[in-house]
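User: Last request for today: this protein with flavin mononucleotide, please.
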Amino acid sequence: MTIHDLRTFIVAARAAGEVNEIHQSVSPVHELGNVLKACERIDKAAYFHKVEGSEFPVVGGLLSSQRWVGRALECPSEEVGDRMAMATERPIKPELQKSAAVSQECVIEKPDLTKLPIPTHSPLDAGAFITAGVVISRDHETGQHNLSYNRMQIYGPDRSGISMNIWRHMKAFYDRGEKTGRNLPFCVAIGPDPTLMIAAACRYDGDEYEIAGALRGAPIPVVRAQTCDVMVPAFAEFIIEGEVIAGERHLEGPMAEFTGHYSARDEKHVARITRITHRKQPIFQTMNGGGYEHVYIGNTITREPLLARFIRHMTKKLRAVHLPPYAAGFTAIISLDDPAPGEVRNVAIAAMAAHVNIKSVIVVGKDVDIYDPADVMWALSTRVRWHEDLLPIPGAHGNELDPTSDEHGVQCKVIIDATLPAASTKSPIKVAYPPIDLARYIK
Ligand SMILES: Cc1cc2nc3c(=O)[nH]c(=O)nc-3n(C[C@H](O)[C@H](O)[C@H](O)COP(=O)(O)O)c2cc1C
Ligand SMILES: [Mn+2]
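Assistant: Here's the final one, the structure of the complex with flavin mononucleotide:
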């Protein structure tokens, strides 16, 4: 089966038994977010068939681990890193589709965001937020498209906030126009081909539709939006068209951030919605703020390939790297095959250079499963001589949203060597029971 949109992706996930079907009606205010979180804890997506106040179903939790991205890209989980690394090297341009687009089957000329099942996800979120929409904007000097995530707090039927932090490509497009009072047109694709959701998290200077194309191995079909000169995916559940209004700001937030803490309430940009189009019987897609899916897409999938590349530059002994979503993307866990004396520190320094957000680097031996938090905690508990295996690096630049950073983003980083030295007089063998198929024993 070829995945090319949200529906084919859901079919594949259902076939693998990975979707919890929620038939009971849920409130979009807190209840939906709570259920989605409970599903995340057991590593499942959730499909909400009935959401109070709306006629549309909602799906969430579809891209929260390497296994899910492997499913989206139709490759084994272990190949995800290589596929991501290749995407920027062999981009594939989008293709203008001549025929009518599925994403524009139904047209709402007088848009009303309050008719959509947009959840208020976590307990202290300031209101309903669109969190899983892929925002498409365009550099009118080059014609290139940018894909990004910009959460949108709902203020009214055709009004929302749009969060564009500093150094974002979309903000640069907006800033250029705002000087002369020009609004920035943009569109939001909800429920597109999952490759667009991955491409939207990438930092790439070219057209980000080309990254999605590379991940899919085929051009992404696009059509022109109805109220602005922006190309939108031909396959998506909803397309919301609008413009960021020049000179306007509104208090936005708080909302659950990727660090697992709430964002501050701040003045943010404001958008006017000009049209909504959708597929017949559309499915709304969402993401919990601060959930594994949020962190995984934003901080893990796009950064692990670079982390591996930096470490391979330093050693041939790399087994695997992981930036686990449960650690906000701030902790790199690295496993090495029998490192030579001193090698662990060199590798950890290389890892620190791969991304400014990396705050803690934990290096373990080849017998530790870096995808199992319990195994990593075991290595920390039994294999670290704290007086010599811990190297704090004070006064380094990290992520500004980390609560331990000062107002300039300066914080203390740390390297932890949780390998046992090969020459150690005490190099006991790890107790490991071989896996079995439990279903054969429990009836
Ligand atoms: C789920 C998710 C939500 C995000 N929300 C926002 C947001 O609200 N505002 C923002 O500026 N960046 C947000 N980001 C980060 C940007 O979307 C991301 O860094 C993207 O690569 C920026 O695009 P650019 O690098 O092309 O400018 C989010 C990322 C993810 C994965
Ligand atoms: Mn970009």
